[in-house]
Specification:
The protein contains 2 helices and 8 strands. It is an alpha+beta fold. Strands 1, 2, 3, 4, 5, 6, 7 and 8 form an 8-stranded antiparallel sheet that branches. Strand 2 and strand 3 form a beta hairpin.
Length: 145
């Protein structure tokens, strides 16, 4: 399990609102303390609409579960469990999500489980480098026979 705190928006897939959220969030990271993983951030997708047309997106950093939440921010617990982890370059995130949900998961022994999925931007991530790696973590469960 992991607890994160950050800025949240209600948005749609591939919306320009998502990349626009990040500079606002990065400017407010100093208000969050203590951050458990310096130089690591998360993009969390949760509260998906039944039709998949909208969801909440949280730009966040990891904190202790008891951490205070700065004004205007949101705290969210990412549950422990089984996740499929994929890595794509920043420039290929949109194509990566398509590949995961249109090809990789449907042809695997797993299906997406309920709960948030998230992007993990590691210590080596550089937002100015299109080839910088981003991990996509999807909660999964075994497909029923």
């Amino acid at each position: 399990a992991l607890t994160v705190v950050g800025l949240q928006i209600r948005t749609t897939p591939m919306s320009p609102d998502i990349p626009a959220l990040w500079p606002r969030f990065v400017a407010r990271i100093p208000e969050i303390e203590p951050v458990l993983e310096p130089r690591v951030s998360y993009g969390v997708v949760h509260n998906n609409a039944a039709d998949g047309a909208s969801f909440d997106y949280l730009a966040a950093v990891s904190v202790e579960p008891s951490a205070a939440v700065p004004q205007g921010m949101t705290k969210l617990a990412l549950p422990a469990g089984r996740y499929a982890c994929f890595s794509y370059p920043l420039s290929g995130l949109g194509d990566g999500f398509c590949e995961i949900f249109e090809r990789l998961l449907p042809t695997s022994e797993f299906v997406q489980a309920s709960g948030p999925l998230f992007e993990r931007y590691g210590e080596d991530f550089c937002p100015d480098e299109p080839s910088s790696a981003v991990e996509i973590w999807v909660p999964v469960t075994r497909r029923q026979a």
